[in-house]
Design goal:
alpha/beta, two-stranded parallel sheet
């Protein structure tokens, strides 16, 4: 129903979908919750400003080996413009990115992740951080035992990962 309502731009179908989700028989977690909606909306004066809210936005920790360098940098630039924080993931960042900190095209991730592998961790990496995240355990990775598959280790990834060696 959700897909049909979206495909067809049909708000009535979307309302049917939300009614289905709210039914206790569907098994959706939401169907077990009760909501007490205010009878009257909240005044806009009582709502936190957008500028204040976005400062708490953070991206997930993804190394640029797991996505692409362009996507990784774009996330950093966007979050820096919003005054939010992007997370480097455990793969490190190039000196050029860290040196862009504070410029109009700031590509430096605010959160630097340090993991058991210590890939790309240098003193410059750590001092360029607004926040440091220590990764205590490995999550899912497409390789074996938490390793990035060799075919994804491009020369620029290998350079950053070995910068601390």
């Amino acid at each position: 129903m959700l897909q049909a309502s979206t495909r067809e731009g049909d708000y009535d179908k979307f309302k049917q979908y939300t009614e289905m989700v709210n039914e206790e028989t569907t098994g959706y977690i939401r169907s077990f919750l009760e909501f007490n909606y205010p009878s009257k909306g909240i005044s806009i004066d009582e709502v936190e400003s957008v500028e204040s809210i976005v400062k708490r936005f953070k991206t997930g920790a993804m190394s640029y080996g797991s996505i692409s360098e362009e996507a990784h940098q774009t996330l950093a630039v966007a979050m820096n413009h919003l005054h939010g924080k992007s997370n480097s993931g455990e793969g490190g960042e190039s000196d050029e990115r860290m040196l862009s900190k504070g410029t109009d095209n700031d590509r430096c991730s605010a959160i630097k992740q340090v993991a058991s592998g210590r890939f790309g961790v240098t003193s410059r990496y750590l001092t360029s951080a607004k926040e440091i995240q220590i990764k205590m355990a490995q999550g899912a990775k497409p390789g074996e035992g938490g390793h990035l598959p060799g075919k994804k280790v491009y020369p620029w990834i290998a350079y950053i990962a070995t910068a601390s060696s």
